Amino acid sequence: MLSILLLPLGSLYFFRFYENELVQKTELELITQSAAFAAVYRQLINKNHTLLSGHYTPIKPELDLSKQQTLPPRPDGIVLDSPASENLVAKQAGQKMQTILRNTQQFTLAGIRILDENGIVIAGREEIGLSFAHIEEVQAALKGKYRSVLRQRISDQAQPPLASLSRGTGIRVFTAFPIIDQGRVYGVVYLSRTPQNILKHLDGIKGRVFFIALLLLGVTSLIVLFISSRLSRPIRELIDQTKKVTRGEVETINAIQQPGTYELAELSNSFAEMSQIVHERTQYIEQFAAHVSHEFKTPLTSIQGTLELLQDHLDEMPVEQRQRFLDNLQQDTKRLENLVTRLLQQARADALQASTETCNILQVLNQLQAIYKAKQLKLILDDSLDENISVSVEALTLVFANLFDNSLQHKANKVLIKLSHSDEQLQLSIHDNGTGISPANRSRIFTPFFTTRRDTGGTGLGLGIIESTLKAWRGTIHAEPTDIGAHFIITLNSG
């Protein structure tokens, strides 16, 4: 916002482009004056003609500050050795135009000289009788061609302080306008004028410029304070909340009620959503760690107690009792092994990152059909399953394998699998004919380590692994109420 204050000064550099317009405007004014003087001069030297013939092409300004070379100051006129070269008719016409030129010059502030066909000044101020035929632009005009040039201007007045920024300072526009009638050049209207200088104008009103600058400073300062408070207040509020979370004073960040801008509202909502996810993840890890500790503690305690009994009474213990204790040790060891395997699967599922992979549902089920047929589980596949779905082959295989294993553990011998469409998603229906899930347990089956068959080696992680895997692929799973067996609905994006 403070950079706005530099715009008035920076814009002075862009005034250079505007100065070119001022130079061309000055040239156009000189062309207009030249045309009028040329008409008067033709009338004076052609008294017998009431209407001069001839066709004239309009003359357009041709000066360009970015392209035009600035020539040295105009050379002085040359004194002629032989007055015989003067045109007496032209000289008389020039004398008659003197009053017109002086009166005009008082209003236009232009330097005005009328030259005859030889380039000699016949009307002007102090250079009458001098020859300008050696000057570049006059030479072109004597040949019937209009010519304009920029020349250096030497001024007795001091330059304004910002004059160095301007290309239009210290120059003067010179135009040489040929006086032509019926194809013959009778003379030249030679005019000059200093173009308007915007910097000089600004220097003249610098008091008002400073006042406007101070006014801009005040207004900009108020705007800066207003916007800063509007931006910094919600940011400070957000920082305070993050510090409280760091210190443990609060658990999550709340979205700012008055964020001030759309971007800050998005930032605040993102922080609140991120903190909520982190909080939920932390709670999940804490609960998971507690469950893992409990699940490991039970078989380890049993193993420790059994080993202590065997160590103290191994020699006096009957063979049958000793074998029973050894079997218990082996069973607890297998349970720990199974638990570790499931925990690794759960960890991989939690850390799973989705990709753009797709797979065909029917092809995955066809590969599993032979495996579970050998386990006495029949997979009944619907024709609608020949669809691509947005999930990898490995992930979908893991999901189906865990569900089918659960079906076997609940004494099912067949599973019906169907596919239906819902908007842009696909819904997989997996329905077995096993013992099913009781209404009381239906809401707890996705809780980690919840199982109704812990005594037979169940870990309660199978459905949690499925849920985490599907979540990584933006999918969901839920249990549907049913009178027979277990019925699960899986929702995934179509491939």
CATH fold-level name of the domain at 2-204: Beta-Lactamase
Named CATH architecture of the domain at 2-204: 2-Layer Sandwich
Q: Write down the secondary-structure element order.
A: HEEHEEEHEEEHHHHEHEEHEEHHEE
| Spatial arrangement of strands, main beta sheet | 1-6-7-8-3-4
Low-confidence stretches: 49-54, 162-168
Structural class by secondary-structure content? alpha+beta
The level 1 CATH classification of the domain at 2-204 is: Alpha Beta
The whole-angstrom Rg is: 50 Å
Q: End-to-end distance, in Å?
A: 50 Å
The major sheet is characterized as:
6 strands, mixed
CATH level-four homologous superfamily name of the domain at 2-204: PAS domain
How would you describe what is shown here?
The structure is a single chain. The chain is α+β, with helices and mostly antiparallel strands. Among the domains are: 2-204, PAS domain (Beta-Lactamase, 2-Layer Sandwich), CATH 3.30.450; 353-493, Histidine kinase-like ATPase, C-terminal domain (Heat Shock Protein 90). It has eleven helices and 15 strands. The strands form four sheets. Strands 1-6-7-8-3-4 form a six-stranded mixed β-sheet. A five-stranded mixed β-sheet has the order 10-12-13-15-14, with helices on one face. α9 packs antiparallel against α11. The longest helix has 52 residues, at 262-313.
